[in-house]
Structures are given as structure tokens and as C-alpha cells.
Amino acid sequence: MSEIMIPDFERTDLGNIQIAPEVIEVIAGLATIEVEGVAGMSGGFAGGIAELLGRKNLSKGVKVEVGQREAAVDVSIIVLYGNPIPEIASNIQSNVKRSIEMMTGLHVIEVNVHVHGVHFKAQEKLEEPDSSRVK
């Protein structure tokens, strides 16, 4: 099993500043779910069905590769039905790139968006007329 190396991003007179890859995953997850049309993050396919993680597991469904000055990000999402997927993906790419670069100073070289499914809003139950014969 390979050990994750946490790179030194910044050296100052007072010491080194290090940002763990998990921090970048959370930033990317937050930036992703902020985009309108995203139902939630996807943990992949469980039994052939896309697993919707919702909005609590922000680092799930996010994979990052971090170097000394650059980062590459993959996000896996489920979109809400009726929304334009290319537009959602483009908005995710912009928002993730901007958030990571602003918060960490890393240059984001790519943001890959993987759409694992479509979420349908639960249809409201229509009130059925009382069909019982006896009241």
C-alpha cells in the first residue's frame, strides 16, 4: 500500500505550509454541490445503480491528484432531471477551479466531471378519493 505524500506547498521564514489532499477534496465537493442542478455527489455504482451520497459526504465522489503547484480533480455527480448536463458540468468545472485556486493557491490543470445518474424528484402523492365502502 502506497503512502500519500503531503507536498510542501509553501515555505516561509516561519516554516512550511502544507495542505492535505482531503482538504482539497472537501473544497471541490462544496464547490460542486453549490451548482444548480446537482442532486448530490455519487459514490460510484453500487449494484448497477448510481449511489447518491447527498450533500453531507462532501469529499466522497471527489478524487484529487496534488503536486507541488498543481492539482487535477475528478468529481462524480448525480444531476437533477430536467437540467442541461453540459451546462451543469461547465459550471462545476469553473466553480471548482476558482474555489481551489482562490483558497489554496494551487493551479488547477483539469476538472473532470463524471455524471453517474439522474435524480427524479419524488412525485407528490395525489390524494385519492376515499374508496372504502364503509365509513
Structure description:
It is a single chain. The chain starts with 7 loop residues before the first strand and ends in a 16-residue tail after the last strand. With 135 residues, the chain is of the alpha+beta class. 28% of the residues are buried. The strands form 2 sheets. Strands 3, 4, 5, 6 and 7 form a 5-stranded mixed beta sheet that branches. Helices cover 24% and strands 39% of the residues. It contains 2 helices and 7 strands; from the N terminus they run ββαββββαβ.
Describe, in short, the structure shown.
The protein is of the alpha+beta class and 135 residues long. 24% of the residues lie in helices and 39% in strands.
Q: How far apart are the first and last residues' alpha carbons, in Å?
A: 68 Å
Give, in order, the helices and strands. EEHEEEEHE
Largest sheet: 5 strands, mixed
Shape: elongated
Mean pLDDT: 82
Question: Which regions have little confidence, pLDDT < 50, spanning 5+ residues?
Answer: 1-6
- Helix- and strand-based class? alpha+beta
Please bin the fraction of helical residues.
10-25%
Strand content: 35-45%
Round the Cα radius of gyration to an integer and report it: 20 Å
Query: How many β-strand stretches?
Result: 7
Instruction: Tally the helices.
Output: 2
Furnish the topology, listing elements before pairings.
Blueprint: E1 8-12, E2 15-18, H1 21-33, E3 38-46, E4 49-54, E5 62-66, E6 70-80, H2 85-104, E7 107-119
Parallel strand pairs: 6-7
Antiparallel strand pairs: 1-2, 3-4, 3-6, 5-6
List the keywords.
alpha+beta, 2 helices, 5-stranded mixed β-sheet, two-stranded antiparallel sheet, single chain, 135 residues, 7 strands
